[in-house]
Design goal:
The chain is about 35% helix and about 25% strand. This is Thermonuclease family protein. Pfam families: SNase (PF00565). Keywords: Endonuclease, Hydrolase, Membrane, Nuclease, Transmembrane, Transmembrane helix.
């Protein structure tokens, strides 16, 4: 192979890799690479019972809890769900996130741990979130137990799933 052809191929490869790096930078974290990884940071905001903002390495990251769906803020038990989360993970406390995915809103989807407690599980166990069956069955047994004990939102006769509430 002649030297001119090698230089051309090398240039094309470098340009291609540069474009890939730029696209990855524009899209933020490489979530395929981070899947299963853990990050730690400080909780700076709690939006509702299944979403918080984590300060990690100087960047605010929106975190959506994996496998659960908490009531919307305007929904029955929405405030209680958020308050329970704040009790489990107070503002300015440290949280560890086991990354599972990225959602359509570019939020990190993960399992949240505060004080070594699986907060996703605790929200369901306390009756402040549904097990989000469309994505995982991991917390379904906790939902069944909370229902049986009429805990939290299960004290209502017919609580509306957040996914249905969002369609109203």
């Amino acid at each position: 192979m002649n030297l001119g052809l090698r230089k051309t191929q090398s240039t094309i490869i470098i340009i291609g890799l540069s474009i890939l790096a730029l696209v990855a930078h524009i899209n933020g974290y490489n979530f395929a690479y981070l899947n299963g990884k853990e990050i730690t940071g400080k909780i700076v905001k709690v939006a509702d019972g299944d979403t918080l903002t984590l300060l990690h390495n100087g960047e605010n990251l929106k975190i959506r809890f994996y496998g659960i769906d908490a009531p919307e803020s305007q929904q029955s038990f929405g405030k209680e769900s958020k308050n329970n989360l704040l009790k489990l993970c107070p503002l300015n406390s440290t949280a560890k996130i086991k990354i599972k995915d990225k959602d359509k809103y570019q939020r990190i989807v993960g399992i949240v741990f505060c004080n070594n407690v699986d907060v996703n599980a605790k929200q369901v166990e306390d009756g402040y979130a549904w097990a989000y069956r469309e994505y995982s069955l991991a917390y379904l047994h906790l939902e069944i137990q909370a229902r049986a004990k009429s805990k939290g939102l299960w004290s209502e006769e017919n609580p509306i799933k957040p996914s249905n509430f969002r369609k109203l």
